[in-house]
Specification:
Helix content of chain B: 55-70%
Order of helices and strands of chain B: HHEHEHEHEHEHHHHHHHH
Chains: A alpha/beta, B alpha/beta, C alpha/beta
Helix content of chain A: 25-40%
Number of domains of chain A: 1
CATH architecture of chain A: 3-Layer(aba) Sandwich
Radius of gyration of chain A: 19 Å
Largest sheet of chain B: 4 strands, mixed
Structural class of chain B: alpha/beta
Number of strands of chain A: 10
Oligomer: heterotrimer
Largest interface: B-C, 113 and 121 residues
Strand content of chain B: 5-15%
Structural class of chain A: alpha/beta
Largest sheet of chain A: 6 strands, mixed
CATH topology of chain A: Rossmann fold
Number of helices of chain A: 9
Strand content of chain A: 15-25%
Order of helices and strands of chain A: EEEHEEHEHHHEHEHEEHH
């Protein structure tokens, strides 16, 4: 039995009367790519924010790397990496300066930052861009740089919130290649996406609708169970089933709620 | 320590990379200095005067000459039509009119006390009041001279006048710059730190980097210190630049201790930086932050004694100014510049100012949470 | 190509929702002028009252007491007797317990009997020069009254009648209500538009709009219309508060004022547009707008301080301030009942300024798009 990286028990988060995450139980294992699917407003961002310690859960339990999200959120922050769809880089700093900055924030020593910087430049193929303002980078490179910064301190768990939205298919494929390499080195990946073809890259996926889990298994098993050729079709089938069950449709926007 | 340092390096780089902003930060105050130092004067000069001399005698011309000989009045024209006065005032072509009635010199000679009329545009009450005072003075002088020059004039006996001997302390030349410029320093130490810290925090919120910082091990205090220390340093640089310009270029005398000024400025910056953080916690976009900061600013400047003297306000509003931290620092800085006041004599302002600063700062830091919801 | 009304209204609607969803900004936009009105209407009083005066009466005689009484009787002074050492008088200034001190000499009574004049010393804290001048003039006035009461003044050979037109009680609120309208209108129009346009640039939504078939002029009109509405509403609120709370008269034509207000708002919007073409980020736009609108409008437009008293160089600078002209217009119409033909001068300059600003900013706007 592999070690558990992330575990939630009956996790709930309300915003007023709206339930963004409703009684969610998951276990994520080490070295696993754990995909988290759902339409916009399904509660993906809320879930990630709770696990990263950005948002307090309303009730339920959750641990990340064995640490409690209520009491040990600051320790959790030391061992996780986080990258959101906004690619939170400073666009008025150069590539190099962004790396130095985040390295400094994670308390890495100069040698280590130097090493990481070279690694990023080499593996991402962006050595030429070292002194370029991040503002001027192509979107695909911004995404890779953001990933590089999130991995600077070799986190044990990496949270990715819609990391590929807005980038072209080629860049998306390259990105997943890096993800696989990272996992090989022992990192757990927790990724949200609404691109169903990306779900195929994950070891296990977890589909959420209106704050609730509606499926949790490997892509292959899910496809077999619903007798579909792609995750895309699985997803559509599942969501349609949900819609039929519902008497009252849920409000559809709250992914961005803060 | 390295974390705070990394924050600071980043913050400085961003400030220096933003050239337009940087030039605004440094050019604006100097421009302000220039405008404020000269524009704010309650002295009233060059009042537009319309003369309606219906007498046209030697004597009436002498009355008019009295008004022409001073830069307090600009003689704009002559009119014989009394209706024209009001119309000219409506068109902003005259502020005051002097009406000398027909037969003025004849009646004056006969001792029949003719009537001189002064009509003034009362829209600007302050100017109108001063203008009336000037007119009374000029006419009074004319009258006294006229009486004294009468052939049958005899010096009244037993006149013992009380005269005024005045000493203007601290500012014998009566230059208003001496008073305004230290005030500008306070305005700068209010606007700059408050705006910069509020806008920069909210900007990070807007672009999402603040969220990124929140999932790092950077603590709240490290984040804020790393952010605020650069602005603190920048504020001091600004203070130094403005004071240099003021002292070297405008020749504003600085009689007090630089050390005391720098020290008390540090205490004041707690207030303004704290307000900046506070604003960033209650707003979610730069536009909102800007407006909120603007609101604070206008209130603080207008009610801080910067150009409306607190002593002139109605008592209720005067009491209200005790809630304004800027009030204390304006008094302090003016006293240091002009009166070389010691820390001891400034305590009654320094203590409440510091209390405000620490209160606002610590409340804001508490309100600034490392969570998003 | 003609402008499309539908496209303009689509942009205007979007912008309008931006505004009303942002309660805080909206709240400030409407609360701010009211607070300013109250401060200007009640607090801004350039006339000093009840100046604390330390009295050192070394003579302690009947006449010296009468002199002090003359000061107590004046509304300008609040005299108190100072018992300390003469050398420590400065401490009163340092602690701001007094702004002026009067020293009546030992031999006051004797000199008043035997000599033609006697000197009374006034020490004035001149750190605030304007206040010091006023204090000196008030002291002078009281001394003159004192001399007059002792019957030593020559009577004037003529009577002086003074008439105050338009604002006989010299109320400062009458002066400032129209002033606040001028200030708020330019702040909202120039500041908000410049921020709005640079925000679109910063967030990249501008590019999205630009690739759609919308023409630049349509974008500008669409963005600007909601702010014209907002500015108008705000002006109406100020006007209403002024008329109801401060009882400011309205003598002229509301129609004329409305028309000229539109002109002024156009001027301010062009200014905002020009700023936004220069600034790449919101921060820069805000700082520039504040620098260009707030300070000059308060200081150089004649809002508080008379332009004619400023040094020549600054006076020339005031010709570039839109509020300078609008102040003449709004004060003229409201307080004096001026008609259009009497306001031709300011109207002409305002129109000219608008044309220049608009021309330059549209040109720069198009240039920015081509890059």
């Amino acid at each position: 039995m592999p070690e558990i990286s992330v575990k939630t028990e009956n996790l709930v988060r309300n915003f007023g009367s709206f339930v963004a995450v409703n009684q969610v139980n998951i276990e994520v294992y080490q070295k696993e790519i754990f995909g988290f699917l759902g339409a916009n407003g399904a509660g993906k961002t809320t879930m990630i924010r709770m696990l990263c310690g950005l948002l307090k859960p309303s009730s339920g339990k959750a641990t990340v790397g064995g640490l409690d999200v209520y009491r040990q959120s600051e320790q959790i922050k030391r061992s996780i990496g986080y990258m959101s769809q906004k690619f939170s880089l400073y666009e008025d700093l150069t590539v190099e300066e962004n790396i130095n900055f985040y390295g400094g924030i994670y308390d890495l020593n100069q040698k280590r930052i130097q090493k990481k910087r070279d690694e990023i430049f080499f593996s991402l193929g962006m050595g030429d861009y070292a002194r370029t303002l991040t503002y001027d980078l192509p979107l695909g490179f911004k995404q890779r740089l953001a990933l590089g910064c999130a991995l600077l301190h070799d986190p044990r768990i990496l949270f990715l919130d819609e990391p590929t939205s807005g980038v072209d298919p080629k860049a998306r494929r390259d990105f997943w290649e890096i993800i696989h390499q990272t996992v090989a080195l022992g990192t757990t990946i927790f990724v949200t996406t609404h691109f169903m073809e990306e779900a195929e890259y994950c070891h296990r996926v977890f589909i959420m609708d209106a704050g609730k889990i509606i499926a949790l298994d490997t892509p292959t098993k899910l496809k077999n169970r619903y007798k579909k050729k792609s995750m895309q079709e699985v997803f559509v089938t599942l969501v349609e089933k949900q819609q039929e069950k519902k008497t009252n449709p849920m409000p559809d926007s709250n992914d961005k709620m803060s | 320590m390295q974390r705070i340092f990394s924050m600071m390096v980043k913050e400085f780089k961003q400030v220096f990379r933003n050239r337009p902003m940087l030039s605004i930060i440094f050019i604006a105050p100097i421009l302000q200095l220039f405008i404020l130092a000269f524009a704010i004067t309650t002295e009233v000069l060059h009042i537009k005067l319309l003369v309606c001399d219906l007498d046209r005698s030697q004597v009436s011309k002498e009355v008019v000459r009295g008004f022409g000989n001073t830069d307090r009045f600009d003689l704009l024209g002559f009119s014989t039509d009394l209706k024209e006065i009001k119309e000219k005032m409506k068109a902003w072509e005259a502020q005051m009119a002097l009406v000398i009635p027909p037969g003025f010199s004849r009646d004056l000679g006969r001792g029949q006390n003719p009537e001189i009329q002064v009509v003034v545009d009362g829209v600007d009450g302050n100017t109108a009041g001063v203008a009336l005072g000037y007119a009374r003075g000029i006419l009074g002088e004319f009258g006294t001279n006229y009486v004294k020059n009468r052939p049958n004039y005899t010096q009244p006996v037993g006149i013992h006048l009380v005269n005024m001997e005045e000493r203007m302390w601290y500012n014998p030349d009566l230059s208003s710059q001496q008073f305004m410029v230290p005030g500008i320093v306070v305005v700068l130490l209010t606007i700059l730190p408050m705006m910069l810290s509020a806008l920069s925090l909210v900007k990070e919120k807007e672009i999402g980097t603040l969220e990124q910082l929140m999932v790092t091990p950077l603590t709240r205090y490290q984040l804020l210190l790393g952010k605020l220390i650069p602005f603190l340093i920048l504020s001091y640089v600004e203070l130094a630049v403005v004071m240099t310009v003021a002292i070297v270029f405008f020749k504003i005398p600085m009689n007090g201790s630089y050390l005391l000024l720098a020290g008390l400025a540090f205490l004041y910056l707690f207030t303004t930086l704290g307000l900046g953080i506070f604003i960033s916690t209650i707003t979610s976009s730069q536009q909102q932050a800007m407006f909120t900061a603007w609101f604070f600013m206008v209130f603080m400047i207008l009610m801080g004694g910067f150009f409306i003297p607190i002593e002139n306000m109605p008592p209720i509003l005067q009491k209200l100014t005790y809630l304004n931290p800027m009030r204390y620092f304006i008094y302090i800085i003016r006293d240091i510049f002009q009166k070389d006041s010691s820390l001891f004599s400034l305590l009654k302002d320094a203590v409440p100012m510091t209390a405000f600063g620490l209160l606002i700062f610590s409340l804001s830091v508490l309100k600034f949470q490392k969570r998003v919801g | 190509m003609s402008l499309s009304k539908d496209r303009i209204s689509a942009i205007a609607r979007k912008e309008f929702f931006h505004i009303i969803y942002d309660f805080r900004t909206l709240f400030i936009i409407f609360l701010m002028p009211v607070v300013q009105l109250i401060i200007f209407g009640y607090a801004l009083n350039l006339e000093i009252q009840r100046v604390d005066m330390a009295v050192v009466d070394l003579a302690r005689s009947t006449q010296s007491r009468k002199l002090v009484g003359q000061f107590s009787g004046s509304k300008f002074f609040r005299p108190f007797f100072y018992q300390g050492r003469l050398d420590d008088l400065e401490d009163l200034f340092k602690s701001r317990e007094a702004k002026v001190a009067m020293v009546i000499p030992f031999d006051f009574e004797r000199k008043l009997q035997n000599e033609t004049s006697v000197q009374v010393q006034f020490l004035v804290d001149a750190s605030d020069a304007n206040a010091a001048i006023l204090i000196r003039n008030y002291c002078n006035q009281v001394i003159m009254d004192y001399n007059e009461n002792r019957g030593v003044k020559l009577p004037l050979p003529f009577d002086l009648r003074s008439t105050i037109l338009f604002n006989p009680e010299l109320k400062s609120s009458h002066f400032f209500v129209p002033g606040v309208i001028a200030m708020i209108l330019i702040m909202i129009s120039a500041l908000l538009t410049s921020i709005t346009i640079s925000r679109e640039k910063e967030t990249g939504t501008m590019e999205q709009i630009l690739v759609s078939p919308v023409r630049p002029l349509e974008i500008i009109s669409g963005k600007v219309i909601p702010y014209i509405v907002l500015a108008f509403l705000d002006a109406a609120v100020i006007l209403l508060v002024g008329l109801v709370v401060f009882k400011v008269p309205f003598k002229g034509s509301l129609f004329l004022l409305t028309g000229l207000t539109v002109l002024y708002i156009l001027t301010a919007l062009s200014l905002g547009l020009l700023i936004s073409t220069q600034a790449r980020t919101q921060q820069v736009a805000m700082m520039m707008a504040l620098l260009i609108t707030l300070l000059p409008t308060v200081m150089l437009s004649g809002l508080v301080f008379p332009i004619a008293s400023m040094p020549k160089l600054l006076q020339y600078l005031t010709y570039l301030i839109p509020a300078r002209y609008f102040l003449l217009i709004v004060r003229g119409i409201m307080l004096k009942g001026s008609v259009f033909s009497q306001l031709l001068g300011p109207c002409f300059f305002l129109a000219l300024l608008t044309l220049i600003l608009l021309g330059v900013s549209v040109k720069r706007f198009n240039m920015n798009l081509e890059r």
